[in-house]
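Please annotate this fold before class:
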Amino acid sequence: MSGRLARSFNELEVYQLALSLATDLFERTRSWPREERYALTSQLRRASRSIGASIAEAWGKRNYPRYFMSKLTEADSEQLETRHWIAVAANCGYLSRADAEEFLDRLSVIGKMLNRMLEKADQFCRTP
């Protein structure tokens, strides 16, 4: 973004990272066992996709700081839930420890960015 204000949610680095993570997790889960389709696979995909979706919703709520912060908090909650499902997948042997750590590191970056956005919400919100 090179120091200028974003004009759209898809210009936010945190959104781009969340979208990339969700896409990579989707690809990784394609080979998981069929019996996990409606359990672990579905839960992990849903939680990871919800991070970016909540960021997009937060952007749309910028006229209302409390709603903006609520949606960013949801994004962070989904990030934490995704961490849980990655740990379960690693424990079940569907992800190597190295792959799990790589995804967890990416989630840590996203979580830190979301928390910085929450701390500086006034810089993102516009007054109606």
